[in-house]
Amino acid sequence: MRLGIPDVATQPTADGARAPATTRCVRPRWFRPFPRPDAFVPIRILLADDHPSVRHALATLLSTAEDMQVVGASGDAATTRDEAMRTMPDVIVLDVHMPGATGMALTRELLQRVAGVRILAISLFRDPMIVDAMREAGALGYVHKDDLHACLIPAIRAVARGEAYASPGLSFPEGRSQHHADG
User: Fold this and answer.
1) Where does the pLDDT of residue 121 fall: very low under 50, low under 70, confident under 90, or very high at 90 and above?
2) Any domain includes 130
3) pLDDT digits (tens, 9 = 90+) for 20-31
4) Number of separate domains in the chain
5) Could you tell me the end-to-end alpha-carbon distance of the chain, in angstroms, rounded to an integer?
6) Which residues contact 171 (CB under 8 A, 6 or more apart)?
7) What is the separation of C-alpha 62 from the centre of its chain, rounded to a whole number of angstroms?
8) Residue 39: what pLDDT?
9) Is residue 29 situated within a structural domain?
10) Phi, psi at 155, each rounded to 5°
11) Is 54 part of any domain?
């Protein structure tokens, strides 16, 4: 029998003729069905920060959320591009200052290259000009690194839903929605 082609067996009938007895389809060992529409699918996250200790802390924090899965991590712009194309994440948690590119340029590039991805910017800076520039580049959220423990998980959930999110005390440009650590 060939892979994926029905295996038809025959059996004798009362008049001596042979008729199909069963039809079965043998699936290759590597076959995995698509998830059911009601099946749980975690938010796939790529962590991009130039400090290994921050990446480790973020991964540890996200491991407590059952609805999230860290699929990759990177420490510079080139690795972030490669990992994003390889892992196809739902959300990229992106440090605003990465070696190799500005956060704004990298955000624009990732949004063009990776279908359906959403960007959550993280930074030590509360400068409204940086927040506005990241938002204009296409980031849906901005979390100050001092707020990561309280805000990261609700921010990722909001951004994954396509909603804007900003740390307490920060705001997006006029007309943008803002969420805080309530979700």
Assistant:
1) very high
2) yes
3) 554 444 445 444
4) 1
5) 53
6) 128, 131, 178
7) 12
8) 60
9) no
10) -65, -45
11) yes
